[in-house]
């Protein structure tokens, strides 16, 4: 059987408009913004690490998001990583708008003052990353922002430490067992320390 026939028999064509479902790189996160004495939380799945040092993160946030105006005007946000026990709340947070809802109150989440930025941390999350916008070159065209992490916090005392990933179609995968391959990472020793 030639390659073409094999591919057609074994592989199924996949719609390009659903490609994010195959490549979604990181955990579902909650993004907080603070603007004019109002704090908001939004759910986000489109984000990625850009580089390690300084730590840069890129994400998509557009004018359809209530948090967009606050991000543009303040240039700061917090990326909070919820544990698996917050999965339902994270989905529900994404199903309502901060224009009509105080999401901290509605979802019984506790805001904590950040050290550097004006957006709040979320007490119940596994980690909180304080961020400043450092690059908006692609914001107008693609709604892509690049932020620099300026302070990070983790809560190792939480019982639930697993994170979860949105698969782009309303389903989620849950982190499970961790496999240690540090010894094999001979070219990248600096990141395994």
From TrEMBL:
Q: Which SUPFAM superfamilies match?
A: FMN-binding split barrel (SSF50475)
The taxonomy runs: Bacteria, Pseudomonadati, Bacteroidota, Cytophagia, Cytophagales
Q: Does the keyword Zinc apply?
A: no
Task: Provide this UniProt record's keywords sorted from A to Z.
Answer: Flavoprotein
Record PANTHER family: FLAVOREDOXIN (PTHR43567:SF1), FLAVOREDOXIN-RELATED-RELATED (PTHR43567)
Query: What are its cofactors?
Result: FMN
Molecular function via GO: FMN binding; oxidoreductase activity, acting on the CH-NH group of donors, NAD or NADP as acceptor
Q: What is this protein called?
A: Flavin reductase like domain-containing protein
The organism named in the record is Dyadobacter helix
Protein family per UniProt: Belongs to the flavoredoxin family.
Limits of the Flavin reductase like domain: 21-166
**Which Pfam families does the protein's record reference?**
Flavin_Reduct (PF01613)
What the entry lists under InterPro entries is as follows:
Flavin_Rdtase-like_dom (IPR002563), Flavoredoxin (IPR052174), Split_barrel_FMN-bd (IPR012349)
